[in-house]
Amino acid sequence: MNIQSGFKEDFLWGGATAANQIEGQYDKDGKGLTSADFAEFIPKEKRTKDNHLNITSDHVKEVLTGEHEGYFPKRFGIDFYNTYKEDIKLFAEMGFKAFRMSISWARIFPNGYDKEPNEAGLKFYEDVFKTLKSYGIEPVVTLSHYETPYGLTEKYNGWMDRAVIKHFVRYAETVFTRYKKYVKYWITFNEINIINISPFTGGGVLTDKLENPKAASYQALHHQFLASSLATKKLKEINPEAQMGCMLARMKYYPNTPNPEDVLKALQDNQRNLMYTDVHVFGEYPNSYKKFLSDNNIELDIQTGDLEILKSYTVDYVSISYYMSMLSSTSPEGKVTAGNLMNSLKNPYLEASDWGWQIDPVGLRIVLNELWDRYHVPLFVVENGLGAHDKLENGKVHDDYRVDYLKRHITEAKRAVEDGVDLMGFLAWGPIDLISMSTSEMSKRYGFIYVDQDDYGKGSKKRIKKDSFDWYKHLIKTNGKEL
Predict the structure, then answer these.
(1) What's the CATH number where 41 sits?
(2) Is the pTM value of this prediction over 0.85?
(3) Mean pLDDT across the stretch 452-463?
(4) CA–CA separation, 90 vs 101, rounded Å?
Protein backbone atom coordinates (compact mmCIF):
# COMPACT_ATOMS: atom_id res chain seq x y z
CA MET A 1 0.00 0.00 0.00
CA ASN A 2 1.52 3.31 -1.14
CA ILE A 3 0.84 6.67 0.49
CA GLN A 4 1.74 9.68 -1.63
CA SER A 5 4.77 11.69 -0.59
CA GLY A 6 4.42 15.32 -1.57
CA PHE A 7 2.09 16.90 -4.09
CA LYS A 8 1.03 15.04 -7.24
CA GLU A 9 2.56 16.05 -10.56
CA ASP A 10 -0.59 17.73 -11.89
CA PHE A 11 -1.16 19.72 -8.68
CA LEU A 12 -2.94 22.99 -9.43
CA TRP A 13 -0.81 25.81 -8.02
CA GLY A 14 -2.02 29.35 -8.51
CA GLY A 15 -4.08 32.19 -7.12
CA ALA A 16 -7.68 33.22 -6.53
CA THR A 17 -9.70 36.40 -7.04
CA ALA A 18 -13.29 37.63 -7.48
CA ALA A 19 -14.67 39.82 -10.26
CA ASN A 20 -16.03 42.45 -7.89
CA GLN A 21 -12.68 42.85 -6.15
CA ILE A 22 -10.48 43.25 -9.23
CA GLU A 23 -12.36 44.12 -12.42
CA GLY A 24 -13.64 47.65 -11.94
CA GLN A 25 -15.48 49.30 -14.86
CA TYR A 26 -18.71 48.57 -13.04
CA ASP A 27 -20.90 50.31 -15.60
CA LYS A 28 -18.94 49.59 -18.77
CA ASP A 29 -20.12 47.62 -21.80
CA GLY A 30 -23.62 47.04 -20.50
CA LYS A 31 -22.83 45.65 -17.05
CA GLY A 32 -25.54 46.06 -14.42
CA LEU A 33 -25.14 46.82 -10.74
CA THR A 34 -24.52 44.01 -8.24
CA SER A 35 -24.72 43.70 -4.47
CA ALA A 36 -20.97 44.42 -4.30
CA ASP A 37 -21.48 47.86 -5.85
CA PHE A 38 -23.21 49.04 -2.65
CA ALA A 39 -20.30 48.12 -0.36
CA GLU A 40 -18.80 51.42 0.80
CA PHE A 41 -15.31 52.04 2.10
CA ILE A 42 -15.58 53.25 5.66
CA PRO A 43 -12.45 54.23 7.63
CA LYS A 44 -11.62 51.85 10.47
CA GLU A 45 -12.52 54.29 13.23
CA LYS A 46 -16.08 54.60 11.86
CA ARG A 47 -16.54 50.98 10.85
CA THR A 48 -19.12 48.65 12.36
CA LYS A 49 -20.41 45.28 11.25
CA ASP A 50 -23.74 46.90 10.35
CA ASN A 51 -22.40 49.59 8.05
CA HIS A 52 -20.04 47.48 5.97
CA LEU A 53 -21.76 44.09 5.75
CA ASN A 54 -25.40 44.26 6.82
CA ILE A 55 -26.55 46.71 4.17
CA THR A 56 -30.10 48.01 4.62
CA SER A 57 -32.82 48.77 2.09
CA ASP A 58 -32.68 52.45 3.07
CA HIS A 59 -28.92 52.55 2.37
CA VAL A 60 -29.47 51.01 -1.07
CA LYS A 61 -32.23 53.49 -1.87
CA GLU A 62 -30.13 56.45 -0.77
CA VAL A 63 -27.14 55.29 -2.83
CA LEU A 64 -29.30 54.85 -5.93
CA THR A 65 -30.92 58.27 -5.59
CA GLY A 66 -27.65 60.01 -4.79
CA GLU A 67 -28.81 61.04 -1.31
CA HIS A 68 -25.91 59.05 0.13
CA GLU A 69 -22.52 59.90 -1.28
CA GLY A 70 -19.52 57.74 -0.59
CA TYR A 71 -16.70 55.81 -2.16
CA PHE A 72 -17.57 52.31 -3.37
CA PRO A 73 -14.23 50.63 -4.17
CA LYS A 74 -15.64 47.42 -5.66
CA ARG A 75 -17.02 49.50 -8.52
CA PHE A 76 -13.44 50.30 -9.50
CA GLY A 77 -11.39 47.31 -8.33
CA ILE A 78 -7.81 47.39 -9.59
CA ASP A 79 -8.92 47.83 -13.22
CA PHE A 80 -8.34 44.18 -14.16
CA TYR A 81 -10.98 44.75 -16.85
CA ASN A 82 -8.34 46.71 -18.74
CA THR A 83 -5.13 45.19 -17.36
CA TYR A 84 -5.94 41.47 -17.46
CA LYS A 85 -3.33 40.72 -20.13
CA GLU A 86 -0.57 42.39 -18.12
CA ASP A 87 -1.72 40.74 -14.88
CA ILE A 88 -2.09 37.25 -16.35
CA LYS A 89 1.38 37.56 -17.85
CA LEU A 90 2.72 38.12 -14.32
CA PHE A 91 0.78 35.08 -13.06
CA ALA A 92 2.30 33.04 -15.87
CA GLU A 93 5.76 34.30 -14.90
CA MET A 94 5.16 32.83 -11.44
CA GLY A 95 4.29 29.55 -13.13
CA PHE A 96 0.58 29.42 -12.27
CA LYS A 97 -1.12 26.17 -13.25
CA ALA A 98 -4.56 27.54 -12.33
CA PHE A 99 -6.26 30.89 -11.76
CA ARG A 100 -9.51 31.16 -9.87
CA MET A 101 -11.77 33.99 -10.95
CA SER A 102 -15.47 34.67 -11.02
CA ILE A 103 -17.83 35.76 -13.72
CA SER A 104 -19.95 38.75 -12.79
CA TRP A 105 -23.48 37.55 -13.53
CA ALA A 106 -24.46 41.18 -14.24
CA ARG A 107 -21.93 41.40 -17.09
CA ILE A 108 -23.79 38.55 -18.81
CA PHE A 109 -27.36 39.39 -17.75
CA PRO A 110 -27.27 43.01 -16.48
CA ASN A 111 -30.43 42.65 -14.38
CA GLY A 112 -30.09 38.94 -13.80
CA TYR A 113 -33.36 38.19 -15.56
CA ASP A 114 -32.85 39.75 -19.02
CA LYS A 115 -34.16 37.89 -22.06
CA GLU A 116 -30.86 37.99 -23.95
CA PRO A 117 -27.26 37.84 -22.68
CA ASN A 118 -24.93 40.79 -23.08
CA GLU A 119 -22.44 39.93 -25.83
CA ALA A 120 -19.85 42.45 -24.63
CA GLY A 121 -19.71 40.69 -21.27
CA LEU A 122 -19.50 37.26 -22.85
CA LYS A 123 -16.66 38.41 -25.09
CA PHE A 124 -14.69 39.91 -22.20
CA TYR A 125 -14.54 36.63 -20.30
CA GLU A 126 -13.81 34.69 -23.47
CA ASP A 127 -10.82 36.95 -24.06
CA VAL A 128 -9.65 36.39 -20.47
CA PHE A 129 -9.97 32.61 -20.86
CA LYS A 130 -8.08 32.69 -24.15
CA THR A 131 -5.28 34.65 -22.50
CA LEU A 132 -5.09 32.17 -19.62
CA LYS A 133 -5.06 29.21 -22.01
CA SER A 134 -2.28 30.78 -24.07
CA TYR A 135 -0.08 30.43 -20.97
CA GLY A 136 -1.35 26.97 -20.09
CA ILE A 137 -3.25 28.25 -17.04
CA GLU A 138 -6.48 26.44 -16.12
CA PRO A 139 -9.35 28.76 -15.22
CA VAL A 140 -11.24 27.78 -12.06
CA VAL A 141 -14.47 29.74 -12.41
CA THR A 142 -16.97 30.71 -9.73
CA LEU A 143 -20.46 31.46 -11.01
CA SER A 144 -21.54 33.62 -8.07
CA HIS A 145 -18.98 35.32 -5.85
CA TYR A 146 -20.79 37.93 -3.78
CA GLU A 147 -22.09 39.70 -6.88
CA THR A 148 -25.84 39.06 -7.18
CA PRO A 149 -27.30 41.37 -9.86
CA TYR A 150 -29.12 44.23 -8.17
CA GLY A 151 -32.02 43.76 -10.61
CA LEU A 152 -32.80 40.51 -8.80
CA THR A 153 -32.80 42.29 -5.45
CA GLU A 154 -35.13 44.94 -6.81
CA LYS A 155 -37.55 42.47 -8.39
CA TYR A 156 -37.41 39.49 -6.03
CA ASN A 157 -35.37 40.54 -2.97
CA GLY A 158 -32.61 38.34 -4.31
CA TRP A 159 -32.50 34.66 -3.42
CA MET A 160 -35.58 34.97 -1.20
CA ASP A 161 -37.68 34.12 -4.26
CA ARG A 162 -37.64 30.72 -5.99
CA ALA A 163 -37.92 32.52 -9.32
CA VAL A 164 -34.22 33.42 -9.07
CA ILE A 165 -33.34 29.72 -9.44
CA LYS A 166 -34.43 29.61 -13.08
CA HIS A 167 -32.55 32.82 -13.87
CA PHE A 168 -29.36 31.45 -12.31
CA VAL A 169 -29.64 28.16 -14.20
CA ARG A 170 -30.15 30.05 -17.45
CA TYR A 171 -27.08 32.16 -16.73
CA ALA A 172 -25.10 29.01 -15.91
CA GLU A 173 -26.27 27.29 -19.10
CA THR A 174 -25.24 30.36 -21.11
CA VAL A 175 -21.67 30.45 -19.80
CA PHE A 176 -21.25 26.65 -19.77
CA THR A 177 -22.13 26.60 -23.45
CA ARG A 178 -20.04 29.60 -24.43
CA TYR A 179 -16.91 28.55 -22.53
CA LYS A 180 -17.13 24.79 -22.98
CA LYS A 181 -13.71 24.54 -24.59
CA TYR A 182 -11.99 26.87 -22.12
CA VAL A 183 -13.19 25.94 -18.62
CA LYS A 184 -12.94 22.54 -16.96
CA TYR A 185 -13.32 23.50 -13.29
CA TRP A 186 -16.41 25.32 -12.02
CA ILE A 187 -17.72 26.35 -8.60
CA THR A 188 -21.35 27.39 -8.10
CA PHE A 189 -21.39 29.69 -5.03
CA ASN A 190 -18.42 31.20 -3.26
CA GLU A 191 -18.49 30.50 0.48
CA ILE A 192 -22.17 29.57 0.34
CA ASN A 193 -22.43 29.64 4.15
CA ILE A 194 -21.97 33.43 4.18
CA ILE A 195 -25.60 33.99 3.09
CA ASN A 196 -26.58 33.12 6.67
CA ILE A 197 -24.12 35.66 8.09
CA SER A 198 -24.56 38.50 5.58
CA PRO A 199 -27.62 37.79 3.38
CA PHE A 200 -27.08 40.79 1.12
CA THR A 201 -23.44 39.91 0.51
CA GLY A 202 -24.18 36.25 -0.12
CA GLY A 203 -27.49 36.51 -1.92
CA GLY A 204 -28.69 40.05 -2.57
CA VAL A 205 -31.29 39.69 0.20
CA LEU A 206 -32.30 42.80 2.15
CA THR A 207 -33.50 41.53 5.53
CA ASP A 208 -33.95 44.70 7.58
CA LYS A 209 -37.69 44.95 6.89
CA LEU A 210 -38.47 41.24 6.96
CA GLU A 211 -40.44 39.76 9.85
CA ASN A 212 -37.94 36.93 10.45
CA PRO A 213 -34.55 37.74 8.89
CA LYS A 214 -32.89 34.58 10.17
CA ALA A 215 -35.52 32.29 8.68
CA ALA A 216 -35.40 34.28 5.45
CA SER A 217 -31.67 33.69 5.05
CA TYR A 218 -32.12 29.92 5.38
CA GLN A 219 -34.96 29.91 2.86
CA ALA A 220 -32.70 31.80 0.45
CA LEU A 221 -30.00 29.21 1.12
CA HIS A 222 -32.42 26.41 0.18
CA HIS A 223 -32.96 28.14 -3.16
CA GLN A 224 -29.19 28.39 -3.70
CA PHE A 225 -28.77 24.69 -2.97
CA LEU A 226 -31.41 23.88 -5.60
CA ALA A 227 -29.79 26.25 -8.08
CA SER A 228 -26.40 24.65 -7.46
CA SER A 229 -27.77 21.16 -8.10
CA LEU A 230 -29.61 22.21 -11.26
CA ALA A 231 -26.53 24.06 -12.55
CA THR A 232 -24.50 20.88 -11.94
CA LYS A 233 -27.08 18.95 -13.99
CA LYS A 234 -26.71 21.47 -16.85
CA LEU A 235 -22.92 21.30 -16.76
CA LYS A 236 -22.91 17.53 -17.10
CA GLU A 237 -25.32 17.76 -20.05
CA ILE A 238 -23.27 20.41 -21.83
CA ASN A 239 -19.76 19.23 -20.97
CA PRO A 240 -19.55 15.81 -19.28
CA GLU A 241 -15.76 16.19 -18.90
CA ALA A 242 -16.08 19.32 -16.77
CA GLN A 243 -16.11 19.22 -12.98
CA MET A 244 -18.37 21.07 -10.59
CA GLY A 245 -17.31 21.97 -7.09
CA CYS A 246 -18.95 23.54 -4.08
CA MET A 247 -17.17 26.03 -1.86
CA LEU A 248 -17.20 26.54 1.89
CA ALA A 249 -15.66 29.11 4.18
CA ARG A 250 -14.33 26.44 6.54
CA MET A 251 -14.57 27.71 10.08
CA LYS A 252 -12.96 25.06 12.24
CA TYR A 253 -14.04 25.12 15.87
CA TYR A 254 -12.02 23.80 18.79
CA PRO A 255 -13.50 23.43 22.30
CA ASN A 256 -12.27 26.27 24.49
CA THR A 257 -11.66 23.86 27.38
CA PRO A 258 -11.85 20.08 27.96
CA ASN A 259 -15.21 20.69 29.62
CA PRO A 260 -17.60 18.27 27.86
CA GLU A 261 -20.05 21.15 27.41
CA ASP A 262 -17.45 23.04 25.37
CA VAL A 263 -16.62 19.87 23.43
CA LEU A 264 -20.31 19.42 22.61
CA LYS A 265 -20.59 23.09 21.58
CA ALA A 266 -17.59 22.68 19.23
CA LEU A 267 -19.18 19.57 17.73
CA GLN A 268 -22.41 21.45 17.06
CA ASP A 269 -20.62 24.50 15.64
CA ASN A 270 -18.67 22.25 13.27
CA GLN A 271 -21.84 20.41 12.27
CA ARG A 272 -23.42 23.74 11.40
CA ASN A 273 -20.45 24.72 9.25
CA LEU A 274 -20.20 21.35 7.50
CA MET A 275 -23.92 21.17 6.77
CA TYR A 276 -23.34 23.15 3.58
CA THR A 277 -20.88 20.66 2.13
CA ASP A 278 -22.98 17.76 3.43
CA VAL A 279 -25.84 18.90 1.20
CA HIS A 280 -23.58 19.34 -1.83
CA VAL A 281 -21.82 15.98 -1.45
CA PHE A 282 -24.47 13.73 0.09
CA GLY A 283 -27.45 15.45 -1.52
CA GLU A 284 -29.51 15.72 1.65
CA TYR A 285 -29.96 17.80 4.76
CA PRO A 286 -28.30 16.21 7.82
CA ASN A 287 -30.35 15.51 10.93
CA SER A 288 -28.30 17.97 12.95
CA TYR A 289 -29.46 20.76 10.60
CA LYS A 290 -33.07 19.67 10.82
CA LYS A 291 -32.79 19.92 14.60
CA PHE A 292 -31.21 23.37 14.30
CA LEU A 293 -34.15 24.54 12.18
CA SER A 294 -36.64 23.07 14.65
CA ASP A 295 -34.87 24.62 17.64
CA ASN A 296 -35.04 28.02 15.93
CA ASN A 297 -38.67 27.64 14.81
CA ILE A 298 -37.66 27.82 11.15
CA GLU A 299 -39.85 25.93 8.70
CA LEU A 300 -38.47 25.89 5.18
CA ASP A 301 -40.74 25.98 2.15
CA ILE A 302 -39.53 22.75 0.54
CA GLN A 303 -41.64 21.92 -2.48
CA THR A 304 -42.34 18.60 -4.15
CA GLY A 305 -39.27 17.39 -5.99
CA ASP A 306 -36.79 19.68 -4.21
CA LEU A 307 -35.15 16.94 -2.16
CA GLU A 308 -34.91 14.68 -5.20
CA ILE A 309 -33.06 17.44 -7.08
CA LEU A 310 -30.54 17.82 -4.24
CA LYS A 311 -29.99 14.06 -4.15
CA SER A 312 -29.62 13.62 -7.90
CA TYR A 313 -26.99 16.23 -8.76
CA THR A 314 -24.08 16.32 -6.32
CA VAL A 315 -20.63 17.86 -6.75
CA ASP A 316 -17.37 16.35 -8.01
CA TYR A 317 -15.09 18.07 -5.50
CA VAL A 318 -15.16 20.21 -2.36
CA SER A 319 -13.27 23.49 -2.32
CA ILE A 320 -12.63 25.63 0.74
CA SER A 321 -11.30 28.91 1.93
CA TYR A 322 -9.23 28.56 5.07
CA TYR A 323 -7.86 31.48 7.04
CA MET A 324 -8.32 30.75 10.74
CA SER A 325 -9.74 28.51 13.46
CA MET A 326 -12.26 29.43 16.15
CA LEU A 327 -13.02 28.50 19.75
CA SER A 328 -16.37 27.23 21.05
CA SER A 329 -17.39 27.95 24.60
CA THR A 330 -20.54 27.73 26.70
CA SER A 331 -19.06 30.44 28.93
CA PRO A 332 -18.56 33.49 26.70
CA GLU A 333 -16.07 35.17 28.97
CA GLY A 334 -12.59 36.01 27.81
CA LYS A 335 -10.77 38.12 25.26
CA VAL A 336 -12.39 38.23 21.83
CA THR A 337 -10.48 38.49 18.56
CA ALA A 338 -11.89 39.76 15.28
CA GLY A 339 -12.27 37.49 12.29
CA ASN A 340 -13.60 37.31 8.75
CA LEU A 341 -17.28 38.10 9.39
CA MET A 342 -16.93 36.27 12.70
CA ASN A 343 -15.56 36.89 16.18
CA SER A 344 -14.05 34.24 18.39
CA LEU A 345 -12.50 33.85 21.80
CA LYS A 346 -8.76 34.35 21.60
CA ASN A 347 -6.74 31.15 21.36
CA PRO A 348 -3.64 31.62 23.58
CA TYR A 349 -1.65 29.18 21.44
CA LEU A 350 -2.05 31.19 18.23
CA GLU A 351 -0.72 34.49 16.95
CA ALA A 352 -2.95 36.83 14.94
CA SER A 353 -2.69 38.86 11.76
CA ASP A 354 -2.86 42.66 11.53
CA TRP A 355 -6.64 42.26 11.27
CA GLY A 356 -6.99 39.93 14.23
CA TRP A 357 -7.37 36.71 12.25
CA GLN A 358 -5.91 33.84 14.29
CA ILE A 359 -3.15 32.11 12.33
CA ASP A 360 -3.41 28.34 12.60
CA PRO A 361 -1.49 26.38 9.93
CA VAL A 362 -1.96 23.03 11.69
CA GLY A 363 -5.69 23.70 11.53
CA LEU A 364 -5.49 23.38 7.76
CA ARG A 365 -4.10 19.86 8.08
CA ILE A 366 -6.86 19.01 10.55
CA VAL A 367 -9.54 20.46 8.27
CA LEU A 368 -8.31 18.61 5.18
CA ASN A 369 -8.13 15.31 7.04
CA GLU A 370 -11.62 15.75 8.47
CA LEU A 371 -13.12 16.68 5.10
CA TRP A 372 -11.43 13.73 3.39
CA ASP A 373 -12.59 11.29 6.06
CA ARG A 374 -16.13 12.66 5.82
CA TYR A 375 -16.58 12.92 2.05
CA HIS A 376 -13.97 10.92 0.14
CA VAL A 377 -14.11 13.32 -2.80
CA PRO A 378 -11.15 15.40 -4.04
CA LEU A 379 -10.47 18.55 -2.03
CA PHE A 380 -9.23 21.91 -3.29
CA VAL A 381 -7.85 24.80 -1.22
CA VAL A 382 -9.06 27.72 -3.32
CA GLU A 383 -8.35 30.49 -0.81
CA ASN A 384 -5.61 30.93 1.77
CA GLY A 385 -3.45 33.95 2.35
CA LEU A 386 -2.37 36.76 4.63
CA GLY A 387 -3.84 40.26 4.61
CA ALA A 388 -1.20 42.66 5.89
CA HIS A 389 0.00 46.26 5.86
CA ASP A 390 2.67 46.14 3.15
CA LYS A 391 5.18 48.96 2.81
CA LEU A 392 6.53 50.03 -0.56
CA GLU A 393 10.03 51.38 0.02
CA ASN A 394 12.46 52.24 -2.77
CA GLY A 395 10.32 50.29 -5.22
CA LYS A 396 10.42 47.11 -3.09
CA VAL A 397 8.05 45.25 -0.77
CA HIS A 398 9.81 42.96 1.67
CA ASP A 399 6.98 40.67 2.78
CA ASP A 400 8.81 37.87 4.55
CA TYR A 401 5.80 37.59 6.91
CA ARG A 402 3.64 36.53 3.94
CA VAL A 403 6.21 33.96 2.84
CA ASP A 404 6.31 32.60 6.39
CA TYR A 405 2.50 32.40 6.59
CA LEU A 406 2.13 30.57 3.28
CA LYS A 407 5.13 28.34 3.87
CA ARG A 408 3.61 27.12 7.13
CA HIS A 409 0.18 26.51 5.62
CA ILE A 410 1.50 24.76 2.52
CA THR A 411 3.71 22.57 4.72
CA GLU A 412 0.60 21.44 6.58
CA ALA A 413 -1.26 20.90 3.30
CA LYS A 414 1.62 18.67 2.18
CA ARG A 415 1.42 16.74 5.44
CA ALA A 416 -2.31 16.26 4.84
CA VAL A 417 -1.52 14.78 1.43
CA GLU A 418 0.98 12.46 3.11
CA ASP A 419 -1.81 11.53 5.57
CA GLY A 420 -3.73 10.23 2.54
CA VAL A 421 -5.85 13.26 1.57
CA ASP A 422 -6.63 13.69 -2.14
CA LEU A 423 -5.79 17.36 -2.69
CA MET A 424 -6.27 18.90 -6.15
CA GLY A 425 -4.46 22.17 -5.68
CA PHE A 426 -3.65 25.26 -3.66
CA LEU A 427 -4.72 28.74 -4.79
CA ALA A 428 -3.38 31.65 -2.77
CA TRP A 429 -5.98 34.32 -2.13
CA GLY A 430 -5.25 37.60 -3.77
CA PRO A 431 -2.14 36.85 -5.87
CA ILE A 432 -2.37 40.53 -6.75
CA ASP A 433 -3.50 43.21 -4.30
CA LEU A 434 -7.25 43.72 -4.50
CA ILE A 435 -10.21 45.27 -2.70
CA SER A 436 -11.01 43.54 0.61
CA MET A 437 -14.33 41.69 0.63
CA SER A 438 -15.27 42.41 4.23
CA THR A 439 -14.02 45.98 4.65
CA SER A 440 -13.72 47.29 1.06
CA GLU A 441 -10.24 48.61 1.82
CA MET A 442 -7.15 48.38 -0.36
CA SER A 443 -4.64 48.65 2.47
CA LYS A 444 -5.36 45.06 3.51
CA ARG A 445 -2.97 43.51 1.01
CA TYR A 446 -2.64 39.84 0.09
CA GLY A 447 -0.77 39.80 -3.19
CA PHE A 448 2.55 38.65 -4.52
CA ILE A 449 2.11 41.71 -6.73
CA TYR A 450 1.75 45.17 -5.22
CA VAL A 451 -0.77 47.53 -6.81
CA ASP A 452 -0.02 51.23 -6.30
CA GLN A 453 -3.49 52.26 -5.16
CA ASP A 454 -4.85 53.48 -1.83
CA ASP A 455 -8.15 52.99 0.00
CA TYR A 456 -9.73 55.77 -2.06
CA GLY A 457 -8.56 54.45 -5.44
CA LYS A 458 -5.76 56.97 -5.82
CA GLY A 459 -2.40 55.95 -7.23
CA SER A 460 -0.65 54.99 -10.44
CA LYS A 461 -2.11 51.41 -10.45
CA LYS A 462 1.42 50.26 -11.27
CA ARG A 463 2.13 46.57 -10.63
CA ILE A 464 5.27 45.82 -8.58
CA LYS A 465 6.61 42.38 -7.68
CA LYS A 466 6.99 41.77 -3.95
CA ASP A 467 9.67 39.51 -2.50
CA SER A 468 7.02 36.78 -2.18
CA PHE A 469 6.65 36.77 -5.98
CA ASP A 470 9.97 35.00 -6.53
CA TRP A 471 9.41 32.72 -3.54
CA TYR A 472 6.07 31.49 -4.90
CA LYS A 473 7.58 31.13 -8.36
CA HIS A 474 10.27 28.82 -6.99
CA LEU A 475 7.74 26.91 -4.91
CA ILE A 476 5.64 26.17 -7.99
CA LYS A 477 8.70 25.28 -10.06
CA THR A 478 9.69 22.64 -7.49
CA ASN A 479 6.05 21.50 -7.01
CA GLY A 480 6.23 22.36 -3.34
CA LYS A 481 9.38 20.36 -2.67
CA GLU A 482 11.42 23.47 -1.83
CA LEU A 483 9.50 25.69 0.55
Answers:
(1) 3.20.20.80
(2) yes
(3) 97
(4) 15
